[in-house]
Fold this sequence. Notes:
Chain A is mainly beta. Chain A contains no helices and eleven strands. Chain A is globular.
Amino acid sequence: EAGVTQFPSHSVIEKGQTVTLRCDPISGHDNLYWYRRVMGKEIKFLLHFVKESKQDESGMPNNRFLAERTGGTYSTLKVQPAELEDSGVYFCASSQGGGGNEKLFFGSGTQLSVL
Amino acid sequence: QKEVEQNSGPLSVPEGAIASLNCTYSDRGSQSFFWYRQYSGKSPELIMSIYSNGDKEDGRFTAQLNKASQYVSLLIRDSQPSDSATYLCAVTPYGQNFVFGPGTRLSVLP
């Protein structure tokens, strides 16, 4: 069974440009999460989808970040326009259950560098 | 106060020794506790989950949870060089999604 896949693995863009990250969760997992790890800091929650609905987007830093999950399958996270402080590793994770007891399975992440 | 705290390390132990990793959390209503292992440049990988007070063993790994003291630990017996990685503690505070600690870097010396 395929795990959580993310694309691209690396992205280098200039400040002001737009970048779109994609995540394909494990098949059958209704819960999809986006996390970000900025250099030297802990992994921080961005948002949580249950199927196609945003369950919790309290971690989204500002309105330059837009996440979608069309049809409850894959998800995209768009950053527009990108700023220097957006650099970091963006992880996607999925889980089958819910309620805080479920086990998260992570993708390998997208390393975003904004120059 | 940070929600989940860990000693950043590095924690160095000789091969074959017991590695002890600790994590404290601030929300008394936290329900679930997880240990993830992350190799450099790779994704976090779930090692252990624990939900009730006491010890939980899985192979060379033992997770210990003490809700009264608000700490959770991970013991790795017979440490191997391949165990060298960053270990992330994750907690689900009441009504919130997963909160991760900063991670402890473990180095097992041959």
